[in-house]
Structures are given as structure tokens and as C-alpha cells.
Amino acid sequence: MRTKLASVAALAAAAALAMTACAPSSQSGNGDGGDGGGEGGGDGVRIGIKYDQPGLGFREGGGDPTGFDVEVAKYVADELGYSEDQIEWVQTPSANRENALEGGEVDMIIATYSITDERKERVDFAGPYFVAGQDLLVRADDSEITGPEALDGKNLCSVTGSTSAQKIKDEYAEGVQLVEQGGYAECVTYLESGQVDAVTTDDIILAGLAATPENSGKFKVVGNPFSVERYGVGIPSGAETCGDINDAITKMKEEGTWQEVLDAATEGTGYTPSEELNNGPEAELESCDG
Fold first, then answer.
1. CATH second-level architecture of 134-221?
2. In 3-state terms, what secondary structure has residue 79?
3. Which CATH class is domain 26-132+229-283?
4. pLDDT for 87-123, tens place per residue?
5. The Solute-binding protein family 3/N-terminal domain covers which part of the protein (predicted)?
6. Which residues contact 49 (CB under 8 A, 6 or more apart)?
């Protein structure tokens, strides 16, 4: 019997080591983060963010992450009972978000994560904490482009694989010329040099790009959104934290912290989020009834 138990224990230990070796690496924020998962005030919480979206979720090297999403995440974590040094930041690219939640790599994701019915088949959402809309980024001195209809005969940049530019061509400006680049930073470079006339994606992402020190004062968001993207807090299916996260988002807005961190993240861009989207039916919090 002892031999059998020892064998089982050995197998369990080996399995644990294997899982540790195979788990994707992540960079912690202000501490090791612990094992997260569950009740506030525990060992830590693992939060998935972007590392490559200035103004939203951005991290260089071993520095602390910055941006609006990061500040929302810190606030929510604090309301759940976790101090900032208990947060483990996990880089979570768009293509890996559902997998990260299902595989237990993170406890929540706050990373311009749009709430959709398709995604809700695999994960749950709290929020939204922000409602974005597709918009245009143009040069600061451009007064001609006021919306997607004004793009006929213009050059429009978006990233490879995105459907946002094609949507404009299909629905608003048949004569627009589409230019694809590997990332939005490249699109902004094209915009500055005059190779394109506008860049398109979600308005707050554009504002974050325009707010970087190297782009300060060069660009502006048109401010005429023409779609709706409800950014939610992704959580594992069946997670019990949904209601508490919704309460935290409500409190953050009511006490003014939400507006403060949003203003700081988009300072100098002339960007104002849509009050209609962020205070209307689209901003209604997700039900936590399951």
C-alpha cells in the first residue's frame, strides 16, 4: 500500500512539474502575484492586459505597465481586496484571451476586450467599463475629414487582418484607397509622412496612439464614432467575481476616478469619449446571473 501511495505521489509531483514547465511565461507587476484565483485578499490576482497599446495597456521591458486599462485593473483589484503588489500582470494578446481564461492562466482580462455573443459561449464578462466606437485619426491640422463619408479619394490605413477599413469602403466611402500595415504604429508613421490621410480603429486606441510623447500635438481623433465596441472584463465561465467587478466599475465612475484616469491616458489628443455611448443603453452592465 505504501509503495502504491508513493507511486501516486510521485506521479502527481511529476505532473505538477510538467504543468509548470509548459505554462506560458508571464511578467509580474510589483510582485510575484501568487496563485490568484478567487477570493479577494488572497495570495494574489493574475490580470491579463496588452503590452503594446499606448494609453491603454503598455509596458516596456521590466517597467510598470501604464494606461487606462491598467488603471481600471488596479482599481478593480483593490475593490476585490488585492493591493497593487499582489497583482501579477500577464501579457495577453487578442488571439489568446479565451484560451488564457479557460486554461487558468489569468483570473481576469482587461485589454480592450469587446463583449460579443460568440465570446460569451466560452467565457463570462463583467462590465463594460468603457464603450468605444470605430473612428478616424487624422493630422492635427486636417479640417476636411470629419467622418468616414469624407474619405472618398483618400488613403486610409489599418492593420493587416482588420475589417475596420473594409467596413468604411463597403458602407461609407467606396472610393477610399485601403493601405494595410503590420501594426498601428506603422500606420501612424504613414499618416505623419502624408502617405495616408487617416488611420482607423477604435477611438480610444487611436487616442492612445496620439497621446504618446513622440506623437504629441501631431494628430487628432475626429470624434465621430460609427460603431459600438463594449469593452468588458473577461472572467472564466462561472466565476463568482462578476457582481463585485460590476460594483467596482460603478463606484469608479461615480466617484470620478474613471474620468480622471481616462483624461490622463488621452491627454493632448483632443479626444472626448462619446457620452451617449458611455452613459446610454450600450453601457448597461452585463447580468451576472449566468
1. 3-Layer(aba) Sandwich (3.40)
2. helix
3. alpha beta
4. 999 999 888 899 999 999 999 999 999 999 999 999 9
5. 44-273
6. 57, 59, 65, 67, 69, 70, 73, 89, 90, 91, 92, 109, 110, 111
